[in-house]
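User: quick one, sequence for these tokens?
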């Protein structure tokens, strides 16, 4: 009787797991390759001494100013609150309690009011990773910038900004000296916290694990245990779970290396919509080697300085981003741009062949770049995508290149024997053209 009960429990467990797997698979979405977060993650690893003992976090002012020490436990006394606007607070060496850091965090996120008005720093400065271009520097960037500076330097930027853009954004800010010091303390902490990233989707991973377990249990029962009397049910479970496992592995294997929508963070917030769209700069002005070389090339700093020698302030970013371009040029340092479009090493592709000989415009492969603030990968760069283009695109025989190398086809077109010639008709589908 006990043996029969155990068999019955085993069958119920297997069937319930199988139906749970079916429900999960019906709700799951197709697997997609998405490398954006991996290339965008730029957090700074926290130091143990800082996170485990927040009371030891010190203001940037305390390193060089040691006069007027504050007794422990008296950092937020009524006496200090009454003179919060006094500049002498910037010269005080102090340790910040967890309560101080929480107050600084609330000030940063606009949850605390100063003189009946809140200032939300996070509304302009991102605290989490985003695919949308934000012209303002993110919270980690400004925290790193002021990490080695004093709170009084931060106050100058917040309350007495020099740039036109900052003056507009920071107009009407009401912050006491105490508020600025607490903001600086939280920004020092944020260097170790880093930017918040989005959680990855693990639905397909869970499906794969559950399907593999059910597949193994059913296989073991068929081969060894033989608990289920209805063998056709086990074979049905094996077929469904085996098909699901194969589908998950094949889809993710095909998607591996294909990154449609890939849009990594760049060291400088460069907008193609501003340069190519609004200012109507020709793509070949910056990517001059696209006409004569395999690669389109990355413009050198002197190309940027042809304009930014005079243009030092942006209408959206102020002086922040352009100053990075100028600093790189003056320091004779190349900007470390992150490459977006990249083919495997076993594939040959020439921009000169497509741009000069083929007369293909940039948007055919890169999308409507003139409307992209933040550049992203449009096609999946698969072999099928390339072949489809070669099968449908007509060759422009008005180009001298094709007249020279394909005279017979040119004569046939002029004689009316051929209506048109596709790229596939001149070797566009030959394996050796791209793989050799």
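Assistant:
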């Amino acid at each position: 009787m006990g043996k029969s009960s155990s068999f019955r429990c085993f069958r119920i467990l297997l069937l319930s797991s199988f139906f749970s797997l079916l429900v999960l698979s019906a709700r799951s979405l197709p697997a997609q390759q998405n490398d954006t977060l991996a290339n965008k993650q730029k957090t700074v690893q926290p130091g143990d001494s800082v996170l485990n003992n927040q009371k030891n976090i010190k203001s940037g002012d305390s390193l060089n100013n040691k006069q007027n020490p504050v007794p422990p436990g008296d950092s937020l006394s009524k006496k200090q609150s009454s003179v919060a606007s006094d500049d002498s607070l910037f010269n005080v060496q102090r340790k910040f309690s967890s309560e101080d850091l929480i107050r600084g965090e609330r000030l940063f996120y606009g949850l605390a009011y100063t003189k009946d008005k809140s200032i939300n720093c996070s509304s302009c400065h991102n605290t989490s990773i985003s695919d949308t271009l934000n012209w303002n520097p993110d919270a980690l960037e400004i925290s790193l910038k002021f990490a080695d500076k004093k709170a009084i330097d931060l106050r100058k930027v917040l309350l007495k900004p020099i740039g036109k853009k900052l003056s507009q954004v920071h107009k009407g800010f009401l912050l006491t000296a105490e508020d600025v010091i607490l903001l600086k303390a939280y920004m020092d902490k944020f260097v170790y916290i880093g930017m918040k990233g989005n959680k990855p989707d693990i639905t397909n991973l869970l499906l794969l694990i559950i399907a593999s377990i059910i597949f193994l249990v059913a296989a073991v029962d068929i081969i060894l245990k033989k608990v289920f009397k209805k063998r056709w049910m086990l074979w049905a479970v094996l077929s469904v779970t085996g098909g699901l496992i194969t589908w998950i592995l094949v889809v993710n294997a095909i998607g591996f290396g294909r990154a449609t929508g890939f849009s990594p963070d760049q060291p400088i917030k460069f907008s193609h919509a501003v340069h190519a769209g609004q200012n109507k700069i020709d793509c070949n002005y910056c990517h001059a080697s696209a006409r004569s070389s395999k690669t389109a090339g990355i413009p050198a700093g002197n190309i940027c300085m042809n304009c930014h020698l005079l243009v030092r302030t942006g209408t959206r970013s102020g002086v922040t981003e352009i100053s990075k371009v100028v600093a790189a040029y003056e320091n004779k340092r190349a900007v470390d741009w992150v490459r977006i479009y990249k083919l495997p090493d076993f594939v040959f592709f020439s921009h000169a062949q497509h741009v000069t000989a083929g007369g293909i415009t940039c948007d055919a492969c890169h999308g409507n770049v003139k409307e992209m603030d933040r550049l992203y990968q449009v096609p999946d760069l698969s072999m099928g995508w390339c072949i489809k283009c070669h099968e449908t695109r007509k060759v422009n025989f008005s180009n001298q290149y094709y007249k020279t190398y394909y005279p017979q086809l040119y004569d046939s077109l002029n004689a009316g024997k051929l209506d048109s010639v596709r790229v596939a008709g001149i070797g566009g589908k030959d394996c050796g053209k791209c793989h050799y």
